[in-house]
Amino acid sequence: MSMKIMITGKNRKIALDIDEHLHDDRDYTLIKCAASKAALLDMSLSETPDVIIICAGDENADSVKVFDILRESVRLGAIEVIVVANEEDRKCFMANTKLDRLFFLSRPISLLALYKKLDDIEKTIRTKERELALTEFVNDRSPEEFSRKHILVVDDDPEQLMAIKENLREFYEVTVINGGKKIFKVLEKYKVDLILLDYMMPEMDGPEVLKRLRDRSEYDDIPVVFLTGMSDKEAVLKLIVELKPQGYVLKPSKKSELVAKIIEVLG
C-alpha cells in the first residue's frame, strides 16, 4: 500500500509545486487539505495520512497554532510532519508550535532532500509493519470481553474532540465529528452505543440534534450525554426534564468524569 501524504499550508504555490512533483515522481496517495483546524481534524481522522507537509508562508503565532490540532497524532507517532519554510517562518514555527516533533525543509526546496526524508519515513513504516506481521498471542479472556462499546462525540471544537478521543480510546471505539449536521450520516453507517453531544454549536446545536434523534424511531433509544459549560448548566437541566437525555458532563471534562458517566449509562 502506497504511503499517504497530506499537503496543506498557506503557501499555495509551493503546495501545488510539491503536489505536482510527487504526483509525477512517486507512487504516493496525495491529499490536499485547507490550513484550518476543522479541515485538518476531519482529514487526519478520515484519511489517516502517514506524512503531512505544511507549506508555510508569512506565518504568525495564530496561524502556527492551527497545526497544534495534530499534536496527539504526532506524539503517538501516527503522523510525521514536514514544514517547508524560509528562515523567518521556521523561527515563527519554532517559537509558537506545540508539536513535539517536526522536520524543516528550507526554501528554495531541495527535492532530493524531500525525497530522501520521505524514503526514510517509508522505510520506518515498512519496518514496523514487518515487526508486527508475525507475533504470537495466546488469549485466555472470554468472548464477551472483546466487545467494545462505540462512542460518538459531537462537538464544534477540534481540540475538544481530539482530547476526548484520546481520553476514551483506551476503553471504547470512538468516532468524532465536527458539528451536529453530520450526525445522521454517521448513524446510517455505524452502530453507536452512546452519543456525547456538545450543547452549544453553530448551525445545529445540541438540543436541536437531540430533538431530531428523538423524532426518529431508529435512533430514539441511543443514550445521549450533553457536554456543556457551567454557564449552560441550568438550560441543560431543563432539557433533561423535556427531552430526557441521560445526563451531562461539564467542560472541560476530565477522563475520569467521562468514563464514570459512560459506565453509569451503559454499565
Topology:
Layout lengths: L3 E5 L3 H14 L3 E4 L4 H11 L3 E5 L5 H5 L5 H5 L4 E6 L1 H10 L6 E4 L4 H23 L16 E6 L2 H11 L4 E6 L4 H7 L4 E5 L7 H9 L9 E5 L4 H10 L5 E3 L4 H12 L1
Parallel strand pairs: 1-2, 1-3, 3-4, 4-5, 6-7, 6-8, 8-9, 9-10
Explained architecture:
- The protein is an alpha/beta fold.
- It folds into 2 domains: 4-131, Rossmann fold; 147-266, Response regulator (Rossmann fold, 3-Layer(aba) Sandwich), CATH 3.40.50.2300.
- The protein contains 11 helices and 10 strands.
- It has helices at 12-25, 37-47, 61-65, 71-75, 87-96, 111-133, 158-168, 183-189, 206-214, 233-242, 255-266; strands at residues 4-8, 29-32, 51-55, 80-85, 103-106, 150-155, 173-178, 194-198, 224-228, 248-250.
- The protein has a 5-stranded parallel β-sheet. Strands 7-6-8-9-10 form a 5-stranded parallel β-sheet, with helices on both faces.
- Strand 1, helix 1 and strand 2 (29-32) form a beta-alpha-beta unit.
- The mean pLDDT is 87.
Helix percentage range:
40-55%
Q: How many distinct helices?
A: 11
The total beta strand count reads: 10
Q: In percent, how much strand structure appears in the residues?
A: 15-25%
Q: Which spans have pLDDT < 50 for at least 5 consecutive residues?
A: none
CATH superfamily membership of the largest domain = Response regulator
Return the structural class.
alpha/beta
List keywords for this structure.
single chain, 267 residues, alpha/beta, Rossmann fold, 2 domains, five-stranded parallel β-sheet, 10 strands, 44% helix, elongated
